[in-house]
Give the backbone structure.
Amino acid sequence: MKRLKYFFKKAKKEGWAIGQFNFSTLEQFKAIVSAAEKLKSPVILGTSQGEVNFFGIEEAILLRDLYRKKFPYVYLNLDHGKDVNLIKKAINLGYDCVHFDGSGLNFQENLKITKKIVKYANKKGCLVEGEIKSIQGSSEVHKELPKEVLLEDIEKAKEFVKKTEIDSLAINIGNLHGVYTKSIRLKIDHLQKIKKAIPVFLVLHGGSGTSKKDIKEAIKNGVVKINVNTELRIAWKKSLAESLQKKAIKPYKILPPVIETISDLVQEKIEVFGSINKS
Ligand code: 13P
């Protein structure tokens, strides 16, 4: 069994990125894993606290393990974990990675808790993603762009990575959660500085609504993991609404087009991320 770290290292060496696709319904789960299997691409199944509280953490683990019998390279990450008890539960149950989002805390407090989580997770072979500066926006459709663009404080991030020994860092290079009426641009020059200064796997949040060109540039400059959620949610809602317009009442007739639509979108992302045939 290849662990997630193997793919982070491989992606860094070969210049591609592994996609994290969030889910909270079985259709989304099926769509993501089937896209991964079809394209022989490793994938991370992301669950935020809200998503996993709805779906069930034991259910997520059981389904991942069941699916691994068909295609082994599917991994689970707890996305934006803030509740330490939930993070510990995810680690104990066998999540492959946990993201502790202490960006709302002061720097020292974030550092202290992240460090403890790293120690706890490492004993169980689980990776830890850290974050120091909150990534703006939420995984929804927004009208207005935030007024100010947050950029990673490189010196602080360097100290944070060194002292906590996290495996990966969620960076701020102009990326935002969600989809906006105006497109956002990534600050690739800032990413280059981060990459040069900090030896850690770099994670790009807010993968929705970012141009292919910017995503490819980010990968070329060291990003090894990209999180996508809003675009999948939009595809789920739109295709479900369309399918419900038809006369069918059988769920197994209504839901397959929804799964197919989301799977096609995940496949498109996998292609842009360059992770086809990397498993
Ligand atoms: P988007 O909703 O913008 O795709 O971002 C998802 C994300 O970063 C999850 O952590």
